């Protein structure tokens, strides 16, 4: 997990935590396979929200996000150990 320190995304995300959920492997109903944020207000956790998902489709894992890295431009790099890929997530409103 990493704190958002960049300004690429809306200011709402600044100082929030991005958390990767690699996904379950031994549950009858799979969970995880996404990136969440734990939303804080003055250092008090308020709620847990999905930031990016889609790696779990029809109860099948298409990917397993492992870690997140925040680049200097504010974009996120997300590693996927199932597909052996790294994704770069940006705000679609950015140039």
Structurally, the number of domains stands at: 1
**Which residues form runs of ≥5 with pLDDT under 50?**
none
What is the global morphology? globular
**Global structural class:** mainly beta
Share in β-strands = over 45%
Radius of gyration: 14 Å
Mean pLDDT: 87
Number of helices: 0
Largest sheet composition: 4 strands, antiparallel
Side by side, the strands of the main sheet go: 1-2-3-4
- Report the end-to-end length measured between terminal Cα atoms: 26 Å
**How many beta-strand elements?**
9
| Secondary structure: helix percent | under 10%
Question: H/E order of the elements?
Answer: EEEEEEEEE
Which helices and strands occur, and which strands form pairs?
Blueprint: E1 2-3, E2 17-21, E3 34-41, E4 44-52, E5 56-57, E6 60-61, E7 65-70, E8 76-80, E9 85-89
Antiparallel strand pairs: 1-2, 2-3, 3-4, 5-6, 7-8, 8-9
Explained architecture:
The chain is mainly beta and 95 residues long. The chain has one domain (2-89). 0% of the residues lie in helices and 46% in strands. The chain has no helices and nine strands. The chain has strands at residues 2-3, 17-21, 34-41, 44-52, 56-57, 60-61, 65-70, 76-80, 85-89. The strands form three sheets. A four-stranded antiparallel beta sheet has the order 1-2-3-4, with no helix packed on it. The protein is globular, with a radius of gyration of 14 Å. The protein starts with a strand and ends in a 6-residue tail after the last strand.
Q: Short description, anyone?
A:
With 95 residues, this protein is an all-beta fold. It has strands spanning 2-3, 17-21, 34-41, 44-52, 56-57, 60-61, 65-70, 76-80, 85-89.
């Amino acid at each position: 997990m990493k704190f958002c320190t960049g300004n690429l995304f809306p200011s709402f995300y600044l100082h929030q935590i991005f958390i990767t959920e690699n996904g379950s492997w031994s549950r009858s109903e799979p969970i995880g396979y996404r990136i969440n944020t734990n939303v804080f207000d003055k250092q008090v956790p308020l709620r847990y929200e999905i930031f990016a998902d889609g790696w779990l489709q029809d109860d099948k894992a298409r990917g397993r996000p492992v870690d997140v890295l925040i680049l200097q431009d504010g974009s996120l790099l997300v590693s996927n150990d199932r597909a052996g890929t790294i994704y770069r997530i940006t705000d679609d409103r950015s140039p």
